[in-house]
Amino acid sequence: MPGNENAPVRAAAEVEIGRPPQVGWKSGPGTIVSTLERVEVPNYIAWRGRTLTIDAYHEWWLEPRDGGTQVRTQESFSGLLARLLRRTLQKTLDRSLEDGLERLKREAERRSA
User: Which of 1, 16, 33, 64 is the most buried (most CB within 10 A)?
Assistant: First the structure.
């Protein structure tokens, strides 16, 4: 589940030969285990995550555009809790994606300054 801007986030990666990389992370009260599904450096990354009864799929596309980079992202939820809390999760997801894109923009601008 997406966290809010002030929620502490902690992550730990686990990689085993022959298995997709997994990252366990905590955002707010929930613990999420995400598995990298596909990575195409430097243009695309996708992963699946699970917390409680919610399954999430998240994709990022990075494309060169006008001397910079255009970033697109989308995430979808499924599962019992996702169906029961559909409207609330959608609002949280929308805010989380906007916040994530804004943070990525600030960091990219900071590094290129």
Answer: 1
| Predicted structure pTM score | 0.71
Contact assessment for residue 49 and residue 9, using Cβ atoms and an 8 Å cutoff: no
Q: Are 8 and 22 in contact (CB under 8 A)?
A: no
pLDDT at 27: 64
Which tokens is 67 given? 């001397």
Pairing of strands 30-40, 9-14: unpaired
| Contact (CB, 8 A) for 51 and 30 | yes
Distance CA 63, CA 43 (A): 6
Instruction: Identify the residue whose tokens are 């992370």.
Output: 25
